[in-house]
Protein backbone atom coordinates (compact mmCIF):
# COMPACT_ATOMS: atom_id res chain seq x y z
CA UNK A 1 0.00 0.00 0.00
CA UNK A 2 1.60 3.30 -1.01
CA UNK A 3 2.56 5.61 1.84
CA UNK A 4 3.18 8.72 -0.18
CA UNK A 5 0.37 11.20 -0.31
CA UNK A 6 -0.54 13.26 -3.28
CA UNK A 7 0.04 16.95 -2.55
CA UNK A 8 -3.08 19.05 -2.55
CA UNK A 9 -2.96 21.76 -5.19
CA UNK A 10 -2.84 25.19 -3.60
CA UNK A 11 -5.81 27.39 -4.30
CA UNK A 12 -5.15 30.45 -6.37
CA UNK A 13 -7.08 33.66 -6.02
CA UNK A 14 -8.37 34.45 -9.50
CA UNK A 15 -6.97 37.67 -10.94
CA UNK A 16 -9.26 40.14 -12.66
CA UNK A 17 -9.18 39.78 -16.41
CA UNK A 18 -7.15 42.35 -18.32
CA UNK A 19 -10.24 43.66 -20.09
CA UNK A 20 -12.03 44.05 -16.75
CA UNK A 21 -9.12 46.10 -15.39
CA UNK A 22 -9.08 48.25 -18.52
CA UNK A 23 -12.81 48.89 -18.20
CA UNK A 24 -12.39 49.95 -14.58
CA UNK A 25 -9.57 52.33 -15.52
CA UNK A 26 -11.66 53.79 -18.35
CA UNK A 27 -14.57 54.36 -15.98
CA UNK A 28 -12.39 56.13 -13.41
CA UNK A 29 -10.73 58.28 -16.10
CA UNK A 30 -14.09 59.24 -17.62
CA UNK A 31 -15.53 60.03 -14.19
CA UNK A 32 -12.56 62.24 -13.33
CA UNK A 33 -12.94 64.20 -16.57
CA UNK A 34 -16.67 64.68 -16.18
CA UNK A 35 -16.57 65.54 -12.48
CA UNK A 36 -14.01 68.25 -13.27
CA UNK A 37 -15.96 69.54 -16.28
CA UNK A 38 -19.54 69.25 -15.01
CA UNK A 39 -19.38 68.96 -11.21
CA UNK A 40 -20.60 66.30 -8.77
CA UNK A 41 -24.08 65.88 -10.26
CA UNK A 42 -23.03 64.18 -13.50
CA UNK A 43 -24.98 60.94 -13.91
CA UNK A 44 -23.45 57.48 -13.92
CA UNK A 45 -25.14 56.87 -17.28
CA UNK A 46 -23.23 59.81 -18.79
CA UNK A 47 -19.99 58.51 -17.29
CA UNK A 48 -20.66 55.08 -18.81
CA UNK A 49 -21.15 56.65 -22.23
CA UNK A 50 -17.93 58.67 -21.93
CA UNK A 51 -16.04 55.53 -20.88
CA UNK A 52 -17.53 53.49 -23.74
CA UNK A 53 -18.97 50.80 -21.47
CA UNK A 54 -22.43 49.67 -20.52
CA UNK A 55 -24.25 50.79 -17.39
CA UNK A 56 -23.99 47.29 -15.96
CA UNK A 57 -20.19 47.45 -16.17
CA UNK A 58 -20.16 50.65 -14.13
CA UNK A 59 -22.40 49.20 -11.43
CA UNK A 60 -20.44 45.96 -11.38
CA UNK A 61 -17.29 47.91 -10.50
CA UNK A 62 -18.89 50.61 -8.36
CA UNK A 63 -22.14 49.82 -6.55
CA UNK A 64 -23.05 53.49 -6.09
CA UNK A 65 -21.95 57.06 -6.85
CA UNK A 66 -20.11 57.37 -3.53
CA UNK A 67 -17.84 54.42 -4.35
CA UNK A 68 -16.99 55.82 -7.79
CA UNK A 69 -16.29 59.38 -6.60
CA UNK A 70 -14.15 58.01 -3.77
CA UNK A 71 -12.12 55.98 -6.27
CA UNK A 72 -11.64 59.07 -8.45
CA UNK A 73 -10.42 61.18 -5.52
CA UNK A 74 -8.07 58.41 -4.34
CA UNK A 75 -6.67 57.98 -7.85
CA UNK A 76 -6.00 61.72 -8.13
CA UNK A 77 -4.22 61.78 -4.77
CA UNK A 78 -2.21 58.68 -5.72
CA UNK A 79 -1.11 60.25 -9.01
CA UNK A 80 -0.14 63.43 -7.14
CA UNK A 81 1.84 61.31 -4.68
CA UNK A 82 3.62 59.67 -7.62
CA UNK A 83 4.60 63.15 -8.85
CA UNK A 84 6.09 63.81 -5.40
CA UNK A 85 8.03 60.53 -5.60
CA UNK A 86 9.44 61.62 -8.98
CA UNK A 87 10.50 64.92 -7.40
CA UNK A 88 12.24 63.10 -4.55
CA UNK A 89 14.08 60.85 -7.01
CA UNK A 90 15.64 63.87 -8.71
CA UNK A 91 19.17 64.57 -7.56
CA UNK A 92 19.51 68.11 -8.88
CA UNK A 93 18.10 71.41 -7.65
CA UNK A 94 15.70 70.76 -4.75
CA UNK A 95 13.58 73.85 -5.39
CA UNK A 96 13.26 73.01 -9.09
CA UNK A 97 11.96 69.58 -8.05
CA UNK A 98 9.40 71.27 -5.79
CA UNK A 99 8.34 73.51 -8.68
CA UNK A 100 7.79 70.54 -10.99
CA UNK A 101 5.76 68.79 -8.30
CA UNK A 102 3.52 71.83 -7.75
CA UNK A 103 2.81 72.19 -11.47
CA UNK A 104 2.11 68.46 -11.80
CA UNK A 105 -0.27 68.64 -8.82
CA UNK A 106 -2.25 71.42 -10.46
CA UNK A 107 -2.67 69.32 -13.59
CA UNK A 108 -4.48 66.68 -11.53
CA UNK A 109 -7.22 69.22 -10.76
CA UNK A 110 -7.47 68.41 -7.06
CA UNK A 111 -9.23 71.73 -6.57
CA UNK A 112 -12.25 70.63 -8.60
CA UNK A 113 -12.57 67.46 -6.53
CA UNK A 114 -12.03 68.99 -3.07
CA UNK A 115 -15.70 69.96 -2.54
CA UNK A 116 -16.76 66.37 -3.22
CA UNK A 117 -14.60 65.10 -0.36
CA UNK A 118 -16.55 67.28 2.05
CA UNK A 119 -20.06 66.91 0.65
CA UNK A 120 -20.39 63.61 -1.20
CA UNK A 121 -19.15 60.94 1.17
CA UNK A 122 -17.28 60.04 4.34
CA UNK A 123 -13.95 61.86 4.21
CA UNK A 124 -12.59 59.45 6.85
CA UNK A 125 -13.00 56.33 4.72
CA UNK A 126 -9.87 54.10 5.13
CA UNK A 127 -9.00 54.30 1.43
CA UNK A 128 -9.10 58.09 1.49
CA UNK A 129 -7.09 58.27 4.71
CA UNK A 130 -4.38 55.99 3.29
CA UNK A 131 -4.05 57.99 0.05
CA UNK A 132 -4.08 61.31 1.91
CA UNK A 133 -1.46 60.25 4.48
CA UNK A 134 0.87 58.98 1.74
CA UNK A 135 0.53 62.25 -0.18
CA UNK A 136 1.09 64.42 2.89
CA UNK A 137 4.20 62.48 3.89
CA UNK A 138 5.73 62.80 0.43
CA UNK A 139 4.97 66.52 0.12
CA UNK A 140 6.61 67.08 3.51
CA UNK A 141 9.72 65.31 2.21
CA UNK A 142 9.83 67.36 -0.98
CA UNK A 143 9.48 70.60 0.96
CA UNK A 144 11.87 69.46 3.68
CA UNK A 145 14.60 68.84 1.15
CA UNK A 146 14.18 72.32 -0.34
CA UNK A 147 14.28 73.86 3.14
CA UNK A 148 17.41 71.89 4.05
CA UNK A 149 19.06 73.26 0.90
CA UNK A 150 18.25 76.80 2.05
CA UNK A 151 16.07 77.39 -1.02
CA UNK A 152 12.59 77.34 0.52
CA UNK A 153 11.56 79.95 3.07
CA UNK A 154 11.19 78.29 6.49
CA UNK A 155 7.87 79.92 7.46
CA UNK A 156 5.64 77.88 5.12
CA UNK A 157 4.04 74.50 5.73
CA UNK A 158 2.56 71.71 3.65
CA UNK A 159 -0.88 73.21 4.14
CA UNK A 160 0.25 76.51 2.62
CA UNK A 161 1.38 74.79 -0.57
CA UNK A 162 -1.65 72.52 -0.92
CA UNK A 163 -4.10 75.41 -0.34
CA UNK A 164 -2.32 77.52 -2.95
CA UNK A 165 -2.35 74.70 -5.52
CA UNK A 166 -6.07 74.15 -4.93
CA UNK A 167 -6.97 77.83 -5.06
CA UNK A 168 -4.83 78.79 -8.03
CA UNK A 169 -5.96 75.83 -10.14
CA UNK A 170 -9.65 76.51 -9.47
CA UNK A 171 -11.30 78.61 -12.19
CA UNK A 172 -12.83 81.95 -11.08
CA UNK A 173 -16.60 81.97 -10.63
CA UNK A 174 -18.47 82.37 -13.90
CA UNK A 175 -15.57 81.24 -16.11
CA UNK A 176 -15.20 78.08 -18.14
CA UNK A 177 -13.21 75.43 -16.25
CA UNK A 178 -11.14 74.28 -19.21
CA UNK A 179 -10.50 77.70 -20.77
CA UNK A 180 -9.01 79.03 -17.54
CA UNK A 181 -6.36 76.29 -17.55
CA UNK A 182 -4.01 78.45 -19.61
CA UNK A 183 -3.60 80.83 -16.67
CA UNK A 184 -2.96 78.22 -13.98
CA UNK A 185 0.75 77.58 -14.46
CA UNK A 186 1.54 81.27 -14.89
CA UNK A 187 -0.04 82.09 -11.52
CA UNK A 188 1.49 79.04 -9.85
CA UNK A 189 4.93 80.24 -10.90
CA UNK A 190 4.25 83.64 -9.36
CA UNK A 191 3.34 81.85 -6.13
CA UNK A 192 6.43 79.64 -6.28
CA UNK A 193 8.71 82.65 -6.69
CA UNK A 194 7.27 83.92 -3.41
CA UNK A 195 8.35 80.71 -1.67
CA UNK A 196 12.02 81.16 -2.41
CA UNK A 197 14.50 81.90 0.35
CA UNK A 198 15.50 84.40 1.50
CA UNK A 199 12.02 85.72 2.16
CA UNK A 200 11.36 89.29 1.10
CA UNK A 201 8.63 89.87 3.72
CA UNK A 202 7.20 88.45 6.92
CA UNK A 203 4.06 86.37 6.52
CA UNK A 204 1.09 87.11 8.79
CA UNK A 205 0.08 84.23 11.06
CA UNK A 206 1.91 80.91 11.20
CA UNK A 207 2.67 78.13 8.73
CA UNK A 208 -0.44 76.11 7.91
CA UNK A 209 -0.16 72.53 9.08
CA UNK A 210 -1.97 69.53 7.66
CA UNK A 211 -4.09 69.28 10.82
CA UNK A 212 -5.25 72.88 10.41
CA UNK A 213 -6.01 72.20 6.77
CA UNK A 214 -8.19 69.22 7.70
CA UNK A 215 -10.13 71.26 10.24
CA UNK A 216 -10.69 74.23 7.91
From TrEMBL:
<feature type="domain" description="HTH tetR-type">
    <location>
        <begin position="21"/>
        <end position="80"/>
    </location>
</feature>
<dbReference type="InterPro" id="IPR049445">
    <property type="entry name" value="TetR_SbtR-like_C"/>
</dbReference>
<dbReference type="InterPro" id="IPR036271">
    <property type="entry name" value="Tet_transcr_reg_TetR-rel_C_sf"/>
</dbReference>
<feature type="DNA-binding region" description="H-T-H motif">
    <location>
        <begin position="43"/>
        <end position="62"/>
    </location>
</feature>
<protein>
    <submittedName>
        <fullName>Helix-turn-helix domain containing protein</fullName>
    </submittedName>
</protein>
<dbReference type="InterPro" id="IPR009057">
    <property type="entry name" value="Homeodomain-like_sf"/>
</dbReference>
<dbReference type="InterPro" id="IPR001647">
    <property type="entry name" value="HTH_TetR"/>
</dbReference>
<keyword id="KW-0805">Transcription regulation</keyword>
<dbReference type="Pfam" id="PF00440">
    <property type="entry name" value="TetR_N"/>
</dbReference>
<dbReference type="InterPro" id="IPR050109">
    <property type="entry name" value="HTH-type_TetR-like_transc_reg"/>
</dbReference>
<keyword id="KW-0238">DNA-binding</keyword>
<keyword id="KW-0804">Transcription</keyword>
<dbReference type="Pfam" id="PF21597">
    <property type="entry name" value="TetR_C_43"/>
</dbReference>
Amino acid sequence: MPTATTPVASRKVPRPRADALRNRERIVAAAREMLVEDGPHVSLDEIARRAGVGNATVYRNFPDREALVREVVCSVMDRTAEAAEVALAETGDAFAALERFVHASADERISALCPMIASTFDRHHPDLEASRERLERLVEEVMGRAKAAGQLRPDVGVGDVMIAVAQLSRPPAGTDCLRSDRFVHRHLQLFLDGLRAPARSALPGTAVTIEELRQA
